[in-house]
What does this fold into?
Amino acid sequence: MVRFRNIVLYFLAISFLIACKARVSLSGATIPPEAKTISVAFFTNNTSLGAPSLSLRFTEKLRDVVSQQTPLSLVRQNGDLQFEGFISDYNVAPIAVQSNDQAAQNRMTITVNVKYTNSFDATKSFEQNFTRFSDFDSKLNVATEEPRLVDEIYRQITEDVFYKAFNNW
It folds into this structure.
């Protein structure tokens, strides 16, 4: 009888712990416990420069980050938590000049305007510009380097967006 009672208490304790668990992802993100879905709208390219694929690449990168680092279901629109926005700046400019007035280094800079809406806590919602850059040797062709540079910049920006939304920094 004592053994049966211990087994029942064990299962009750486990059930209680499961029911009371906090919603924290593997990344350490704090997610509202009532949130079940997240949506990432298509980010448009409002710049006059850059590859036409910039919008799609950023949108997909942000979708990948939130689906891999949260337990939320990704939905097309009207998620409990929502991301939307646009690419507001894309620029390549010289940053280091050699003695012969030639650029030694160039910098690619991308700015993305992100609006995050938390349906459960409006104080956690925000709209903010996120800017990151990557430098490269001026002897390299921008067109050939662009995929690698954009990937690196988008990795940094999506990390910034994720931490702002889910770790409130």
The beta strands are 37-40, 44-45, 73-75, 81-97, 103-118, 126-137. The longest helix spans residues 142-167. The helical segments are 2-19, 54-69, 142-167.
